[in-house]
Amino acid sequence: MSRAAYHCELAWLGGDHAVADVLVEVDGDRIVAVTPGSRVDQLPAGTIRLAGLTLPGLANAHSHAFHRALRGRTHDGVGSFWTWRDQMYGLAATLDPESYHRLARATFAEMALAGVTCVGEFHYLHHQPDGEPYRDPNAMGAALVAAAADAGVRITLLDTCYLQGGIGQAPNQVQRRFSDVRVERWVERVEALRSLASPVVRIGAAVHSVRAVDPASIEQIARWANEHEAPLHAHVSEQPAENHQCIEAFALTPLELLAERHALDAAFTAVHATHLTEHDVRLLQMHRSAVCICPTTERDLADGIGDTAAWRDAGIPIAVGSDSHAVIDLFEELRATELDERLSSLVRGNHAVPTLLEAGTAGGHHSLGWPDAGRISVGSLADLVSVRLDSVRTAGGGADHALATAVFAATAADVHHVVAGGRIVVRDGSHLTVDVAAELHGSIGAVWAAAADTSVVTP
Fold it and tell me: If 0-12 CB within 10 Å is exposed, 13-18 middle and 19+ buried, where does residue 266 land?
């Protein structure tokens, strides 16, 4: 990496409008100058022109990379979250470090094409199918880190503790792959994982759910995250059944249990948070914790609609994620945050466009432990995502409506140029190092072929 200059036809620098003719100068992985109103005839030699609207890099704050292989295979049937989970388990049983790397590389490269410069990978597929650790206990995590590097995106590997198959239940045959059995083994393994940290890799922690981790272990995970100043995420209240089970077992909601075990603070993110109580919302507000909403997955699985207006009123930060990758398109996640709330509340305009953009950029990066990313400003990581404003979806909005056009009309297909940490990853809509469609086709096909060979029932 070296010095580079980009001239943005329009750029979002914060606030409620786009700014014209912005020169962004980069040295290494950092932005060193931002100059609005730069004349085209006075640009530095070699300046790259970026048409349309340039945004900060998008952060996908909740991903399960291997779920990408389920797309198209689990969406047209009847059932519930719980029947979908059984189908997902069938997929999980097939993967090894090599096939996982190949699938994750293609998935993360698809994210790069969609403008994602940082992914939060909620990683719980740790061990061999019989539950025995690989020779390197972090072989699967290392495969994910390598895949992100190959795809050109930063990663926060949220190593997920998963100990039991349900409250007070032993893991089933597939869940043994996820389980470290005892929290002390999780701590030992995640300590070793920290050796993979780098300028483009951060190691965080996750509690899979209050169903999968007992209260005493939750407290130990929270202590580890606090000691290492690492982000801590957890699936929270995705399904009413989870709430009912937790209340029956502990006389607390899932979030109340996490709070009692000292998991909530400014580094904590509640993923989904679909069925929170008023007291749950106050707890998030009190501890300055965030929420990551994943609308395309939540509606695909019939989870319900989170009360994002209540979060707004409480000042709770919001991030977004593509979760199961029914689609990988953070513009869709952002507009769904507002549009689903409209369906629920019968009120329009709950979340302003700049607030939604903040959720997809700085909000997501902060949730993943990258407070120096998600803004086009001096000193920030040099992440730039340029969106076409002349496609059949975006044409006609004009400069005055560029932000609303991006949020409410653009799709991942409108991203034409991506710079991540000062490196060009996507140019003219094509990934520079990965043939994304071909690698998705090959890696997903190989996974299901392996499933057939091992008599694993596929969806």
Answer: exposed
